[in-house]
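Attaching the record inline, Q. Sequence:
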Amino acid sequence: MNFGWVNGHAGIEGNELVDRFAKEAAVEDGPVVCDKTPREVIITREKENGLHMWQRQWTNTGKGAVTKGEGGSDQGFFFQSVRNRLRQKIPILPEFATMVTGHGKLRSYLHRFGLTDNPICPCEEKEEEVEEQTPDHLIFQCKKLRNQRNELIKQIKKKLVKIGLHRMKHLSIIICKFL
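Structure, as predicted:
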């Protein structure tokens, strides 16, 4: 069998037959011969389905209150949206995970499991009003972290001036609590 180019509509018997079949197929309401979906379309569609399912599970779970900002914690809106979290380029270090989840080497967390005598932050032990050592306490109130907090605020203010507040809505809300 040999394939080669032939001049169209030149009276070549095989070519005229193929041309006629092609025209009939184009106007018929018959079955689609080629209905393959491109691989990339399938991958994109499945990623979207996975994200929707993941977001539904994340929204409906009773877990992750600190991370989602539930339970009266107005500071805990780290990751309300799965899609937005995946877009962020954040290295997930153990210290970061502790602050976002409320799990880890925090007295309040360890106390829940009987691993420490009390959940109170060491900065509060001699005070009349004591607070548990929670992520919110460490970020916003801990007296032992005051210098680091002030330096962080100063650095964040510099960054916000450079990039504009509108691009970091949640962060600007947190910063305003300190100002």
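DSSP finds nine helices and no strands in the chain. Residues 72-76 have pLDDT under 50 and may be disordered.

More tomorrow.
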